[in-house]
Amino acid sequence: MRIVGQIEHPIIKITVLQMNNRFALKLEDNLLEQTYKFNEDDRLRTLEDMDKMVDKTFLDECLQRFLDMNKSRGETYLRNIMNEKTE
User: Fold this and answer.
1) How many angstroms separate the Cα of 14 from the Cα of each of 29, 49, 71, 87?
2) For 82, which of 22, 23, 47, 65 is 20 to 30 Å away at the CA?
3) Where are the alpha helices (DSSP H) in the chain?
4) DSSP three-state, residue 77
5) 3-state class of 17 per DSSP?
6) What is the pTM of this model?
């Protein structure tokens, strides 16, 4: 897998990777990561094409997903690690 490039965003790190006729769009925020894979085709071949995929709607959904993921991570930590030490 090779890094094709990065897409600028003020909050999350967005990296575009390519391997075996597929693109991977990796989004990172703090300790969380989301990865989306796309098959390469005639319309999806370049970093610029991948940049088009990262529109406002997609980013809003990803940011909400990061909030949900962070909540789940925090809740399981409290439930299974912090409570274990206080019992």
Assistant:
1) 9, 14, 21, 41
2) 65
3) 47-53, 56-77, 83-86
4) helix
5) strand
6) 0.89
